[in-house]
User: Which sequence fits this backbone?
């Protein structure tokens, strides 16, 4: 059982916005300051989408945004596009200098 | 440009060991940590541990303690992950990933292409 809980699946229609939550169930996640999000298309390598809760690497569309409230981090994708259909994983640094991943969320674009 | 190139697919019998390599290029090798993450078929990402490419220090997930060893060879800019006493449920794609923690904050900015390890009798 992961220390980070994500919904197994979310869906949305093109043009809509969706939000994927990532809830820390352990106090070991270091104040939950260092949350990152990764996108993974089938058979592909994970790709960094968000780091430090809300920062977007260069080259990542500004349709992707991150936030945090309490022990729940969220990834929001606005203006949903077919190419956004993928698995999404949150990850966090922990107090013991380890890392942990959420179980992953499958995004379906209807 | 930053690249992490991993060794090829492996097929191992239960109880055997596997050693996967990850060759880094395009950046200061000793300035970063490398992590190993695995993904069983149809499953999510699972963090295994990291190695400090400068000091060689390591930190492993509790689940793999005693069964995994991560090493590096700075002369050839390569990190290795050895997993022993393989079981069927170790069948997975194993990724190496670079951590930005020593430069800014902890996140994985570059990933290797993945190495499929199949455990089969």
Assistant:
């Amino acid at each position: 059982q992961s220390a980070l809980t994500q919904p197994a699946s979310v869906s949305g229609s093109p043009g809509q916005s969706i939000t994927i939550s990532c809830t820390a169930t352990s106090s070991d996640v270091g104040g939950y300051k260092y949350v990152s999000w990764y996108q993974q298309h089938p058979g592909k390598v994970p790709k960094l989408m968000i780091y430090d809760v809300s920062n977007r690497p260069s080259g990542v569309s500004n349709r992707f945004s991150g936030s945090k409230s309490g022990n729940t981090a969220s990834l929001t994708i606005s203006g949903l596009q077919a190419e956004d259909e993928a698995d999404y994983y949150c990850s966090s640094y922990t107090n013991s200098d380890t890392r942990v991943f959420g179980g992953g969320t499958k995004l379906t674009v209807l | 440009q930053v690249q992490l190139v991993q060794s090829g697919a492996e097929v191992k019998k239960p109880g055997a060991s596997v050693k996967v390599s990850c060759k880094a290029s395009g950046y200061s090798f000793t300035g970063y940590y490398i992590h190993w993450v695995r993904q069983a078929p149809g499953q999510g990402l699972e963090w295994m541990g990291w190695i400090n490419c400068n000091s060689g220090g390591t930190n492993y997930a509790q689940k793999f303690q005693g069964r995994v060893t991560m090493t590096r060879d700075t002369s050839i800019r390569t990190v290795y992950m050895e997993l022993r006493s393989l079981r069927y449920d170790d069948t997975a794609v194993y990724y190496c990933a670079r951590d930005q923690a020593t430069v800014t904050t902890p996140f994985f900015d570059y990933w290797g292409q993945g190495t499929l390890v199949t455990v089969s009798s």
Q: What stands out?
A: Chain B has a mean pLDDT of 96. Residues 62 and 114 of chain B are 22 Å apart (CA to CA). Chain B is about 0% helix and 50% strand. The radius of gyration of chain B is 14 Å.
